[in-house]
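Morning - S-adenosylmethionine inputs below, output right after.
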Amino acid sequence: MNDLQQYFDRLQPRYYINEIASLGFTRLFRKIAVRKVKSYENKRVLDLMSGQGENLEFIKSPNENTAIVALDYSSAMHKKLAATFKKKFSVQQIQKDFFESHIPDHSMDIILCSYGTKTIEEDQKAVFADRLSRIIDEKGEIIIVEFVKPKIKWRASCVKWYIEVLVTKLFGNEFGKLFHYINKNESLEDLKNKFVQNSLSIISHQRYLDLVEILHVKRN
Ligand SMILES: C[S@@+](CC[C@H](N)C(=O)[O-])C[C@H]1O[C@@H](n2cnc3c(N)ncnc32)[C@H](O)[C@@H]1O
């Protein structure tokens, strides 16, 4: 088990604090991202780095053929996801590191990934985009939402102070750790370029509040 896996396992009982510490913005942008897909009817959905299944709450118009795969390497996150959503959805849970998992090519119609990409190492990003590009089927869509480093300097300083000083003081060091990952994550531009190279088309790529980006791509 690597350090990050242990970190997320330990964090799980207090993971809800992220929603409070982000003043509700984490939830808001997750909802906007998941609702980019108007209907999940008859869709095969991969919730990648699913955590406790926070995305599943926002899935619109699912039916009995909506098949969800939730992949995350944290066992604690999976337990909570199962307790919350197993009765509501047909969810297959995969507890594995994505980079060691074997999701078949062309096996998904939708891939959702919320707040999972910032901890991916730089040299793994191309591998990540390539694998997603293969997993998605014809006409399939990939939606990624992530915190990014603000471009405007004073905003970056405010975010640093807010997370490293205030959030850390109020909620503990484990939440302050987040800043390190946001600070090295300039944008989703590199993933976007890789998707374009893989012949996917960009439906939208937006930055909100100079702090969150949502990337929505499609295989034609
Ligand atoms: C910040 S949480 C996001 C959880 C959820 N998607 C959300 O919107 O709140 C990141 C999650 O990704 C998982 N994760 C990070 N890297 C992973 C990897 N390489 N393979 C599988 N899961 C990973 C962690 O265990 C954690 O649950």
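Note: The chain has one domain: 3-148+186-219.

O.
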